[in-house]
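Anyone up for a design puzzle?
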């Protein structure tokens, strides 16, 4: 049984290249939006926050305080 010979330098470079590609894909998603898309996402987020705030229960009133 012979093991495959692995060039550690090449393996390290391949791993770094894969990490850089994953980081680039995340950046494309994060920064690759048009202004209209960013405004729409911000409006949806604010609407969701308002809805959650409206659904909160006031604990003081439930205990009669």
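Challenge accepted. My sequence:
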């Amino acid at each position: 049984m012979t093991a495959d010979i692995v060039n550690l330098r090449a393996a390290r470079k391949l791993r770094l290249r894969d990490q850089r590609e994953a980081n680039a894909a995340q950046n494309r998603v994060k920064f690759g939006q048009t202004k209209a898309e960013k405004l729409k996402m911000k409006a949806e987020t604010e609407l969701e926050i308002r809805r959650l705030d409206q659904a909160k229960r006031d604990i003081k009133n439930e205990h009669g305080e």
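A detail worth pointing out: The mean pLDDT is 88.
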